[in-house]
Design a protein that fits this description.
By secondary structure, the chain is an alpha+beta fold. Helix content is 19%, strand content 31%. The strands form two sheets. It has a six-stranded mixed β-sheet with strand order 4-5-6-7-8-9, sandwiched between helices. A three-stranded antiparallel β-sheet has the order 1-2-3, covered by helices on one side. A hairpin with a 2-residue loop joins β8 and β9. The longest helix has 15 residues, at 35-49. It starts with 5 loop residues before the first helix and ends in a 43-residue tail after the last strand.
């Protein structure tokens, strides 16, 4: 699974006291551990280590104004103008509602890319005319198609969203009573 790569895990510390907390070596903020938070922190690390996005361009729980209410996107990558470029949502289980939530965040912010990640799946989207088109991957920081800055170089037509490595196929919540 994408989140079990050693080069991602090395940047994450789990502290066990009466409850468990996560600390990313990049964010350096203690957060209460949950399956969704673990996925979010590892995706945050992946955006830095694998895609080359700068820590100062990443935001966790980024506020998005939705009419009269304010929602929070799990992770946002800002562009050079400090506007949302990539919006990522992490879920324990990906549902159609999760995809609609991501789509609404992208439509409001006019972000170009979206990521929907769970403990066993990861989907990448390119937004065009209020439609989310599933793509193979998001761009590495600074790499765009010269003819169209919104498209990836060498996009494959069929996404590969199966993430099964090391024999793990899911994360589960474990507590002292189980």
């Amino acid at each position: 699974m994408w989140y079990l790569y050693p080069d991602l895990l090395i940047h994450l510390k789990i502290i066990t006291d009466k409850t468990e907390y996560l600390i990313s070596s990049f964010e350096n903020k203690q957060r209460k551990c949950s399956p969704e938070e673990l996925i979010r922190q590892l995706l945050y690390i992946k955006l830095i280590c694998h895609y080359g996005y700068s820590e100062n361009k990443l935001r966790i729980e980024y506020p998005i104004q939705m009419g009269i209410t304010k929602k929070r996107a799990d992770i946002v990558v800002l562009n050079e103008n400090e506007q949302p470029y990539i919006i990522a949502e992490t879920k324990v289980i990906i549902t159609e509602d999760a995809k609609e939530q991501l789509k609404s965040y992208i439509n409001v912010t006019r972000a170009i890319y979206g990521i929907l990640a769970s403990n066993s799946e990861i989907y990448f989207y390119h937004a065009l005319d209020n439609v989310l088109n599933e793509i193979r991957d998001i761009p590495i920081c600074g790499f765009y198609n010269a003819n169209n800055s919104n498209q990836l170089i060498n996009l494959e037509s069929k996404p590969n969203n199966t993430l099964d490595t090391l024999g793990f196929n899911s994360l589960i919540r474990v507590n002292e009573k189980t």
